[in-house]
Amino acid sequence: MDLQLKNKKVLVMGASTGIGRSIAEVLVQEGAEVAICSRSLDKLQKTAKEIGAKHVFTCDLTKAGEGKSVVEKAIKEMGGVDILVTNTGGPNKGNFADVSDSQWQEDFQSLWMSVVESLKAALPKMKENNYGRVLLVTSLAAKEPLNGLTTSNGLRAGLAGLSKSIANEYAPFGITINLLLPGYTATDRLKELKLTDERIKQMVPAGRLGDPRELADLAAFLASPRAGYITGQSILIDGGVTRGY
Ligand SMILES: NC(=O)c1ccc[n+]([C@@H]2O[C@H](COP(=O)([O-])OP(=O)(O)OC[C@H]3O[C@@H](n4cnc5c(N)ncnc54)[C@H](OP(=O)(O)O)[C@@H]3O)[C@@H](O)[C@H]2O)c1
After folding, report:
1. What residue owns the CA closest to ligand 1's atom 2?
2. Which end of the chain is more exposed for a tag (fewer CB within 10 A), N or C?
3. For residues 142 and 140, what is the distance between their CA atoms, to the nearest angstrom?
């Protein structure tokens, strides 16, 4: 299937490694012009070389204004952003009683405001062009809370509501917005959890971790003109972990 992604202008955030990197790589392979961003210039340059991304921008999405400024830089450099993928590092850990107000503020900036800022910066131009695709990488925690990830459980669930508002307001302009909810996916972040094979089999009906490429393939379809009638959806890529409807 031709996804008609050739020469589409893409910004993938949090894309030096892991899920973001895989999404960027698949979109490059589909012929898109891809910009990637994250905190580390060294990692970005290495990744850009390996996957063929054309532009790199540093940003720290825990800081106010960085989501907005990185989208503005991408629009300036590429002449627009047709496809925006928001993604960033995982949240801080902590049960509710342990989460300080400053940790709430940091995770709110990183998981929520950076998304709002980047949407505000990207949507006007997409609207002008009568075309846009927005993908928000969140987590299965948005549907099924994970122990010890209180801020993620709370903030990420809210993004589903935000996406419904945007889907409603921007569908008439050829713009779709969808959420990708990864389950246990084989990235550096997950390696830190040191899950045993036995534990993975207990938790995941598919009996294995997800490959970031499996999520990225779906991202490429949703980012394509072919997915124009799918908007406001939260899609789990979790090997069957989440049992609810
Ligand atoms: N892997 C899983 O099993 C899983 C499951 C559910 C949800 N998720 C969520 O999916 C997202 C991506 O996870 P991943 O597994 O791909 O993680 P990862 O391999 O650690 O990659 C995170 C990416 O985000 C960048 N990043 C981290 N902090 C940043 C910041 N403050 N500002 C800008 N960029 C930042 C990192 O690059 P730099 O270090 O260069 O900044 C890196 O490119 C996370 O939000 C995670 O919570 C992952």
Report:
1. 185
2. C
3. 5
Probe ligand 1: pick from 26, 93, 187, max atoms within 8 Å of CB? 187
Distance 189 CA to ligand 1 centre (A): 7
Domain ranges of the chain: 9-237
What does residue 84 show for φ and ψ, rounded to 5 degrees? -115, 125
Rounded CA-CA distance 40/104 in Å is: 24
3-state helix, strand, coil in the chain (%, to 5): 50, 15, 35
Q: Name the residue with tokens 């669930």.
A: 157
For the Cβ of 132 lying below 6 angstroms from any atom of ligand 1, the answer is no
The third-level CATH classification (topology) of the domain covering 9-237 is Rossmann fold (3.40.50)
Q: Is the CB of 87 under 6 A from ligand 1?
A: yes
Question: Identity (one letter) of the amino acid at 130?
Answer: N
Q: Which amino acid is located at 124 in the chain?
A: P
pLDDT tens across the length of the chain (245 residues): 999 999 999 999 999 999 999 999 999 999 999 999 999 999 999 999 999 999 999 999 999 999 999 999 999 999 999 999 999 999 989 999 999 999 999 999 999 999 999 999 999 999 999 999 999 999 999 999 999 999 999 999 999 999 999 999 999 999 999 999 999 999 998 887 788 999 999 999 999 999 999 999 999 999 999 999 999 999 999 999 999 98
Does ligand 1 come within 6 angstroms of the Cβ of 118?
no
Nearest Cα to 2, choosing from 233, 220, 235?
A: 220
